[in-house]
């Protein structure tokens, strides 16, 4: 028996709030990525790690806020807590790999394609791993074509957002990149939900796991507190707010001395003063 799936149990409230959370995490994470391109290599890993955690927390929060409105009328839904939080770890790690590639190799060419692909796959992996943590008296079935389309949406939009973050053109540019990232996460989520159907078993056995209400408190407290902290770091950083590059510093490279001694200039011999040529008219008179 097929279950009746409803992804908008609270109307447009959950999609709108979920999209705003995805935009917040994406904007903060991409802004941190832009900041990492303005500093020396010693500070770069910290900013990239903060950006990865912000994007991962934002898309994870977005997913489960959207899932608050997901119901199957014939069967209650419960969540497996370890699988649910494992999806958060997967999102942060895979998004971090993509961001570190772009942060160190630049937002162009093969590095941008690789970083955007891994980031998009991280978003999709978080979604489907979170769906695997849902339990009910039935089984989930997916349309392969729509699943592939959802992964392509996440990959393409994540690549575009990383490219925009690598341009380092100020606050509004990063906000636009965050909106694109939020569109990637939200579009991938609801495309993946459109590919979902539920086949009920009809045994009447209750599902095991945590209810959505039991996951609501840690979902809001943990990631939201971290996003607020990341927002404070971004807002109170003057260089990031102004979008101006930091003064370049000479970084030591392997095999190259940090300060090269100035090369001595070749000494020039003083030129001899030329003797004035005798007047030809006076020489003629003397003859």
Elements, N to C (H/E): EHHEEHHEEHHEHHH
**What is the helix fraction of residues, given as a range?**
55-70%
- Our count of helices gives 9
Class of secondary structure makeup: mainly alpha
Fraction in beta strands: 5-15%
Distance between the termini: 134 Å
Notes on the protein architecture:
This protein has 287 residues and is mainly alpha-helical. It has a two-stranded antiparallel sheet. A two-stranded antiparallel ribbon has the order 3-4. Strands 5-6 form a two-stranded antiparallel sheet. The longest helix has 25 residues, at 81-105. It has helices at 13-36, 44-67, 81-105, 109-132, 144-165, 171-194, 212-235, 238-242, 280-286, and strands spanning 5-6, 71-72, 78-79, 134-135, 138-142, 196-200. α1 (13-36) runs antiparallel to α2, α1 packs parallel to α7 (212-235) and α5 packs antiparallel against α6 (171-194). The protein starts with a strand and ends with a helix. The chain has nine helices and six strands. Residues 242-256 have low confidence and may be disordered.
Q: What layout of secondary structure does this protein have?
A:
Blueprint: E1 5-6, H1 13-36, H2 44-67, E2 71-72, E3 78-79, H3 81-105, H4 109-132, E4 134-135, E5 138-142, H5 144-165, H6 171-194, E6 196-200, H7 212-235, H8 238-242, H9 280-286
